[in-house]
Prior knowledge:
The chain is mainly beta. 14% of the residues lie in helices and 38% in strands. The site of 2-acetamido-2-deoxy-beta-D-glucopyranose has 4 residues, from loops.
Amino acid sequence: MKSLSLLLSVALGLVNVVSAGPAAIECWFVEDAGRGSLAMKPAALLLRPGPGGPPPRPDLDPKLYLSVDDPAGTLRSAFRRYPRDAAAPHCELSSFIPLPASANWARSLTPEQRCPRALDGAWLMVSISSSVFSLSSLLRQQPEPQQEPVLITMATVVLTVLTHTPGPRIQMGQDAVLDLSFSYMPPTPEAASSLAPGPPPFGLEWRRQHLGKGHLLLAATPGLGGKIPATQEGAVAFAAWDDDEPWGPWTGNGTIWLPAVQPFQEGTYLAIVHLPYLQGQVDLELSVYKSPKVSLTPAPLVWAAPGKTPPELLCHVNHFYPSEGLEVEWELRGGPEGGSRKAEGQKWLSSLRHHSDGSVSLLGYLQPPPVTTEQHGARYACRVYHSSLPASGRSVEVTLEVVGFSGPSLEDGIGLFLSAFLFLGLVKVLGWVVAYLTTCKDLKEKKTQ
Length: 449
Ligand SMILES: *[C@@H]1O[C@H](CO)[C@@H](O)[C@H](O)[C@H]1NC(C)=O
């Protein structure tokens, strides 16, 4: 049973390798099988052999069971803080052939006409992606598997390119920092000594792929000059080696900063580090969001005809991004039933209104059913769900005011009528009294005369 589940998880490429930094990473070796199809074979990278030496892996082709030596330590340290509860990383291996960079602006990296002998041999490129980092490494592979103690092939990491922001989500209008670091250790002492001491020249390239179109944002070859394409969209990169020790390994920084990110800048960002005849690249998926402003009209909802249908309520959901996945729900809170429940009535949404900044707005409508006087003081709420908001969404409410209930009540009306009646009566009585008294006085005067 245990071996079955192991087999199953190997088959899915999901072996749980993430406790206290994994000892091994399960991968797929991918190669072109001709006629446009790909062939995949299971492979594994052994990062730590463990106290008893490398565990035997009879399930793997020994050329694809790789004992990884990582002199710069970047690959291994990327896994050190890998969260236990995160999904296992996705790992892919493929063959790599050292070649000069194809772009014209990177030609100055390879002034010599042929690839140095120090780069001879078999190379592999490993690409690892996960929710916490994304990296690629170039590995130089020993030609034959080693026999002792188990069949395994030694491989040395030469170049690693790493980002800790594989899926940046940027609030619209905010700056984005896309983190990139790289490390390099010359594959053999000869390779290092054939160059001047210190880190080699390098080129940095950032591109964006969107809807099948590639777009060069930034290219740099620090210290080399040459004709470099102009930087786009205000991008700024920190393209530098961190140190200039004579003999490596060296680490460098290729972080890019994009000011005031807009929706059109969403897409896959490709960061490529060019060294003479070697290239490492990672991709990042940048997405933009903007949370909606929500308001309700009319507020309050005043209605003078109990038993009849009140006017429709409008929920204004303004300036949000992306346009997909927005939901509007209506609730009725309070009233004779108390509590909060789904509002009855007809509901519909307007079409999207597009703004020049790339954000969108829409209106949610509710035609509430006829209102009774008991519903006076109840609240209608519009609740909006969107990927830019917390899971509970955002809600606003209006109070329902039934006229004739909130103003002077029926009893008040009767009271007023009665008082007016009495007041008029009193005036009349007083009138009579005055008239009577006057008459009496006249009579008295007549008597005394
Ligand atoms: C790269 O440079 C940026 C800007 O100076 C800095 O914020 C970032 O921490 C650096 N990254 C590394 C890995 O040192």
